Amino acid sequence: MTVATVGVHIVDVLARPVESIPGGQDTHLLEQIRITAAGAAAGTAVDLAKIGVPVASFGAVGDDELGDFLLMIMERRGVDVGGVVRKPGEQTAASILPIRPDGGRPSFHVPGANLGLSLADLDQDRIAAAKVVHLGGMDVTWGLHDPAFLALLDKIRGDGAIVTMDLLSNMPDLMPAVRSFLPHVDYLLPNEEQALMLTGAATAEEAAAALVAEGLRGALVTLGAAGSLVVTADGATTVPALDVPVVDTTGCGDAYCAGFVAGLLEGRDV
Q1: Where are the chain's structural domains?
Q2: The pLDDT of residue 248
């Protein structure tokens, strides 16, 4: 295992294209319905495995059929799921995503077992053995808002590993807890809205600079169609988005995180 992803595991049910929700008991025919492994830990783990990076994921799912399905998908993609615990009597987190023709994606979500994930559920020795630990969705894994978990991150970094972090929500009430992680993380990868909420800044550039000023080695802010902004102590760089047709934006953040982590492992410049 080279990378450990820790945090949110979700089953996504995606339907496309959805122009509107049918009224009453009407039926709309669609082009596609599919089910995927998602969440800021699980989705990133799957993407890392797809590009050949040895990865193990750590988190919690329910003891239900959704949990069976999620673990099966992840294992099939090559992710080590031995660190994902099953929570008796709880539902696996899941979302229904009606994908609009322009690629936008409103959602219906059940947070499920993610809310109960705690340090006691994690194999600390295995996580500490990774070269990169990616934290996915610490804003909603409330059981990891724990000084003992932050101390584990400090030990991991002290032993030479890199800690990266991505967020899941755009809920202002959750941002103060996220800030408690910043001194214990090397790289933060928020979207623009999250970066602005975290800092109270007026622009993505100001937000990223403020985050780096708090001790991060780098803040990488995704900007949708405008690409992303990378800020380190050495300065700021804007990276344009790839010029491809947008079909579905689901999982874009996970793919971005996976690519960044893979680049770190290859020794590439941030």
Answers
A1: 3-18+31-185+240-265
A2: 67
143-161 pLDDT tens trace: 999 999 999 999 999 999 9
C-alpha 38/C-alpha 47 separation (Å) is 10
**CA dist., res. 79 & res. 41, Å (int):** 11
Annotation: CATH topology of 3-18+31-185+240-265: UDP-N-acetylmuramoyl-L-alanine:D-glutamate ligase (3.40.1190)
Sign of CA dihedral 27, 28, 30, 34: negative
d(CA 109, CA 116): 16
Spatial separation of the C-alpha atoms in residues 88 and 67, rounded to whole Å = 11
* Cβ-based neighbours of 105, under 8 Å, separated by 6 or more: 14, 97, 98, 99, 248, 249, 250
Beta-sheet strands, E only, within 111-206: 132-136, 162-166, 187-188
Contact (CB, 8 A) for 157 and 187 = no
Q: Is 5 helix (H, G, I), strand (E, B) or coil?
A: strand
State pTM to two decimals. Answer: 0.94
Rounded to 5 degrees, φ, ψ at 55 are -145, 140
Res. 250: pLDDT tops 80: no
